[in-house]
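Following the same procedure, sequence and fold were stored together, as reproduced here:

>
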Amino acid sequence: MAQPVNPPRGMRDFLPADKARREHALGIIRSVYRSHGFDEIETPVVEDYARLHAGLGGDNEKLSFSILKRGIRPEALAAAAEAGDAEQLADLGLRFDLTVPLTRFFASHRAELPPVFRSIQIAPVWRAERPQKGRYRQFVQADIDIIGEAGLLAEIELITATSQALAALGLDGCVIRVNDRRILFGLLAHCGFAPETHDRALITIDKLDKIGAAGVVEELREIDGDAADRIGAVLAAVEPALGADGAGADGAGAGIPLTREAIAEVLPEGAAEDGVANLVALGEALEGGLPAGVAVRFDPTLVRGMGYYTGTIFEVAHPGSGSSVGGGGRYDGMVGRFLGQDVPAVGFSIGFERVVDLLTLPESTGPEAVALIADADVELADLLALKRALVDRGHRVRLEKRQKNMKTLLARIAGEGFARVANVRAGVRDADALEFRDLAD
């Protein structure tokens, strides 16, 4: 019986054309980020198990892939089985995001890095998700982070760089939804939720797009009925202001502008003034500074599931995607877990897999691709000399042998991105003697 030859569930192979399109998109993102002064780093795909499960990764810790210790002895297997804890057998794990590795990287190399470090990380991560459309077990993240800057300048740099990357990719209609964790906690306190219930309440509010305001209020009543009714009144005012999908067709975006007047219309008076002032200052700084087709809007229901966020948080919405296509926020406490002292940090990640599905990219990029079709009696040395000459001129060159069915051959290489073709006959040694014709003809 033939064995299955598909990749593992939730992971994918990419054919050459798909890979070329992905690399083209990654090249655009990388180029924009570097133009904004960020430097690219690389970290291992594995980290210590204890570090991946130190409470820094939120719910993603539950989705991490663990790696068994080397040389496990029978008594260790028995002890793990008796305890009902298979994780006793693991000492490493595949990274589930790029933020935890970055904080470890910074703690390891702080003496070698500038006081304010601007990093790029573009790499695959792994999560034991339930595979479905747009959600995979291996996927690429494209992150930029700023460590060491406590002021609003960090958020401004991240948002402007990310918005220009999205615009350079041709993604019109993006809306960057922003909130502040201080506003969320201030709103919960104002409505009467006890501090010890705040985390649970935020988990419920985060379901607003799935169960609606009525569903959120009903679930919050399990915590505090009166407080749930109060926050329900806030949600009733917020939902119409946010719009149906968070993004307008003209790119201006539905939602709430980052102005004090607009924010005051949906928030109770006096709720989390420090968070409101932060967002108003952000809106003033970004005014007129974003590319066409990208807007920034306030969304008081934006939660971001990670518990490590401490201030500004943001997500990218696009009308062509049912899920966010990027997100991030300020996580001032994470680096301090490694260093023993607080270090300000904020990051923004583009969800590359979701973004690339929205793009219309050129099928062929880079140098002109040409094919040489050699007769059977052509000397190999001559053929390689012709190829070398064309490569030196900047071409991408494919060598093919003449076949009986040339129509099939030409169709295949045209589909692989080769624009022109030349026949090579015996004795031809000069690339200038080749006669090229367009495959499109």
About this structure: The chain has a mean pLDDT of 87. The longest strand covers residues 117-126.
